[in-house]
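Need a sequence for this fold. Nothing fancy.
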């Protein structure tokens, strides 16, 4: 059977159907693969080859998730006249997770309006499925959309297919030199630690979580849920993008812009909205990123500018309305 036809069959319907049709047999299960270190080592993909196939470097994250960022550095996007850094709100990515003898990939693609349908057609042609298409921010120029996708297959072939699907877009991808190690390995030369003008410690104290500083001085906080999130037999991990994400971008005069998304159960949606609005933080979108996850979740995207600690305090009020892990 043709590989693409096989993946389309595997992906039909939902991730639960994918996992049911791609198990090695009735005697094998996802848990047995996870508990066998030897088996995992034998089945582990060549992540360097995956990076080379997609055309962007990746990093091995918690939960053995290999995540490749593809920020839209080719775009100059503003929200209410605030220039958005690629790592702040324009971060396409692919998260790969090995499951037995198959690899799951899922992620988010930042696309101009005119790129949406050509890329979507490319994804379908390559055997992927779509789990969301929507805005994350309002009043942005040029207008961009965010497409959530997933696929199952052999890791390098998935990366090659994703690159072909992205070819109608301007997503910056380049040939990764042979021998370039994944970012999880020690770099050959020291990489400068990102710095920021924002008060990182005060932001962390206000949020009650540990922030990190990323390229461009962006302060990032990821807040996992306290409960386990499943889609079929697969646990959806924070490193796969399944967590509340908060980003601070430095602005002039010690100010900051904030954006990100809250991951919420249905009963948490309105309490979070009310907490954000009570703190003058705008709500820009509410929607799903997945199709068949359990429990059912919603994502809420937000935006505001102002004093970074004041903004962090408002975000903390909203976080306190969710069943998130404590810092």
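Here you go.
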């Amino acid at each position: 059977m043709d590989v693409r036809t096989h993946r389309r069959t595997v992906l039909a319907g939902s991730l639960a159907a994918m996992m049911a049709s791609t198990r090695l047999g009735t005697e094998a299960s996802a848990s047995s693969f996870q508990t066998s270190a030897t088996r995992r080592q034998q089945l582990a993909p060549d992540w360097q080859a995956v990076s080379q196939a997609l055309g962007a470097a990746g990093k091995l994250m918690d939960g053995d998730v290999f995540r490749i960022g593809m920020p839209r550095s080719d775009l100059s996007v503003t929200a209410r006249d605030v220039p958005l850094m690629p790592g702040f709100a324009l971060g396409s990515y692919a998260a790969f997770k090995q499951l037995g003898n198959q690899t799951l990939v899922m992620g988010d693609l930042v696309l101009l309006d005119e790129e949406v349908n050509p890329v979507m057609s490319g994804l379908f042609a390559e055997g992927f499925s779509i789990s969301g298409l929507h805005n994350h921010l309002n009043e942005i120029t040029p207008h961009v959309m965010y497409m959530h996708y997933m696929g199952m297959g052999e890791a390098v072939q998935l990366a090659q297919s994703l690159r072909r699907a992205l070819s109608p877009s301007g997503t910056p991808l380049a040939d990764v030199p042979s021998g370039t190690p994944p970012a999880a390995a020690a770099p050959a030369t020291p990489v400068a630690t990102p710095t920021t003008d924002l008060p990182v410690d005060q932001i962390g104290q206000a949020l009650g979580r540990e922030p990190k500083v990323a390229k461009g001085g962006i302060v990032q906080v990821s807040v996992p849920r306290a409960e386990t999130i499943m889609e079929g037999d697969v646990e959806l991990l924070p490193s796969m993008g399944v967590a509340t994400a908060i980003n601070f971008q430095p602005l002039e005069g010690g100010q900051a812009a904030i954006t990100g998304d809250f991951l919420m159960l249905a009963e948490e949606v309105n309490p979070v909205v009310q907490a954000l609005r009570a703190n003058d933080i705008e709500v820009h979108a509410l929607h799903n990123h997945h199709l068949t996850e359990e429990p059912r979740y919603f994502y809420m995207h937000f935006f505001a500018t102002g004093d970074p600690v004041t903004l962090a305090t408002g975000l903390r009020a909203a976080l306190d309305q969710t069943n998130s892990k404590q810092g």
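For context: DSSP finds eleven helices and 18 strands in the chain.
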